[in-house]
Amino acid sequence: MGGAALLGFGSVKGRLFDLGAFPGADVTTDGSSLVRGDLYRLPSAENAFRALDVYEGCGSASPEPQRFVREVAQVQLDGGGIARAWV
User: Fold this and answer.
1) Predicted model pTM
2) Does residue 1 register a pLDDT over 70?
């Protein structure tokens, strides 16, 4: 994604799964397991999500059922602080 800026690293409450060719995560608001990742600011989230949906096979033309759901979660930043981000 051209123009994406790495803001830092953080974690969300949830579990990471091995789905074979790619990982999957189940984000929760309880529990002690964490999923770690990179936090980016996108110049155009709408354009980025449209491209990612096609790449990940969950665009409007993709067959049902789809494995992927995008939602906003609370991210605990490594340097301190909290952010809300799409996961």
Assistant:
1) 0.77
2) no
C-alpha–C-alpha distance, residues 60 and 18, integer Å: 25
Per residue in 9-60, pLDDT tens?
999 999 988 988 888 888 887 778 999 999 999 888 888 888 888 888 787 7
CA angle (66, 70, 73) in 5-degree steps: 145
What are φ and ψ of residue 49, in 5° steps?
Answer: -65, -35
Q: How far apart are CA 32 and CA 11, in angstroms?
A: 11
Burial class (CB in 10 A: 0-12, 13-18, 19+), 35: buried
Q: β-pairing, 5-18 with 23-27?
A: antiparallel
